[in-house]
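Quick entry, no commentary yet.
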Amino acid sequence: MKLLAVLAAGACLLSAEPLTKAERDAAVAQLQRTAKLFKNSVKGLTPEQWKFKQAADRWSAAEVAEHITLSEDTIFGASQNALKTPAKPHAADAAQKDAMILKAVPERNQKVQAPEVLRPTNKWPDPKAMLKEFDTRRKRNINYIRTTQDDLRAHFVPHPVLGPMDGYQWILLLSAHSERHTNQILEVKADSKFPKK
């Protein structure tokens, strides 16, 4: 019986397919691009600008930036949770769903309530500490995509709005999510009451 289990596990390992070079390159480029957009959006903000809110029920640039940073681990974790599910055939429409995630998620015409775990609580003492943590997490996620041999395309977990997504699509979502909230920071900065330097 043990021999059968070992052989079955070996067969699963042999059938796993790593990401293609094109998939790796695309995800790395997205993650690098959106990291740069985010960091540029908060660069040089004064303490008053950092904490400015458009309204009492809206997030400041500081709170949005914390949400982006917290999401690095949470959304990456979903891609890893997908790997714990049984392997399925790769989705035939994977490329179309990839493109939809990258296009639709950054758009802010539909608001979504953040889960409790991703709501800001002033976790980091200052912007510098928070951005350092973002860099650490984003670099780790980029390195994972560059080097992983996991078959991210064969394992799925559902997203509450986007439906079933494979592990690779959760990585794309991570990038698109940070772009979505970078756009939110830009909205805060464009407010007519945003403090001048």
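second:
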Amino acid sequence: MFDSGLDDAADREIGQHERLAKADRLRAQGIEPFPHIPSGARAEIAALHAAHDPSELKAGEHPRFTYRLAGRVISRRGHGKTTFIDLRDFSGQIQLAVRHDTLGEQAYERIVDLDVGDVVEAEGCIYVTQRGQLALSVHRCALLTKALRPPPAKYHGLGDTGTRYRYRELDLLANETTRELFVTRAKTIDALRAFMAERGFIEVETPVLQALAGGASARPFLTHHNALDQEMSLRISVELYLNRCLIGGLENVYDLGKCFRNEGISYRHSPEFTMLEWLMSYSDHTDVARFTEEMVAYVAQQVLGTTVIERGGEQIDLIKPWRNTTMQAEILRVCGVDFLAAGRDELAALLDGKVHPDAGWAQVVQAVYSKLVEPTLNQPTHVYDFPLDSFPITKAHAKDARLAEHFDAVIGGIELVSGDSEVTDPIEQRERFVAQRKQRMADDDDAPHPHDEEYVRALEYGLAPSASGGMGVDRLLMILTGHETLREVAPFPVMRELRQD
């Protein structure tokens, strides 16, 4: 939280106009408000707090302990010929004791003239205040960056979500919890990569720009490559490229990066999101489910220091064996209907008929599950046996050809991971792609409907039995941190453009 802190009258924002004028006055005095940074090592504020216990030191200066710090001015309080400035860097916060008799008139006045938000460098020695607080007695202070905009008054925690998401820099400045969330996100991604590396997986960078976006049923973002004079798509999935790596002899691979789907926005859907997808040779979807349990527990332990979280008012232990069930059993439990025996219209009635008129039986089943069943699954659960028609690159179930060897892993009512056994028969895969294309043409005459013949050609060289998994990293962050929306955990979420009047 920011506070100018001089007195009640001065406890207000210094306007941008005045800050610009200050920058001009500094230049007139030969002082550059945006100087080249001086060289030399600087200490982190947290290191000072770790090295010195003020209760073990006498009040006053301790010249044998000198430090050079850099950070942002977040508050300022004046007491006659002494000014106290709160300085913050990424590691922590400390008080600077600035005294007229130490610095002299000119240097002291320049420091007093600093604004909240300015970035400064300070040198001095450890100082313990009369109240027993650790501080730095400043012997030299230099402006590194003049802040030309004032932070919002006290920020009030910067609680307006729209402002926080759109101007994330202000959110980071004002809210320690947001800074901690960014660190947690980075640690989560590091832990995912470490888990994969420990198990011998190779990270592959698949193309973001693709001639044909495949691997999932979603509408892509389209763009035009001028040099090639070719329409291209941002990727919606990386699975088909990873499969081609397996065909080439890389048995266990993954890609962790951005995917894009030109569809709706909700608390758990974003047009731009971070996805971890992996392929495992000589495996099926049940192996992916077990792998998922290990991975989620590992990441939680590395990032949170525990595998126990709370979601929906319940305590959840991620390390326990997860519950295994089927879509048939769960729809029957929640809705009292066996979807395998029910027709499209009977299932649509469960949603009060609120389904697309062109939606087929499999699509309606999927809607019933996602809207009515999935939100009830708070404890970690693997749901198996989805309708095959929803998964064109998934192997048909060995015991029921209407179903796919597919599962969803759900925690806190959120689908976290989906996994599949891969189709390895190129002839079957081509037939499935053709059927999918015909269905899309029936649904939308204006939509592009090619299928990935290059992938089918690759399959003809022989894909060993394999299985895939896909995890939404943003959703994992939601689960681990207790947040309810993807926009909270995405560093810079997609926002509607502000209209300029």
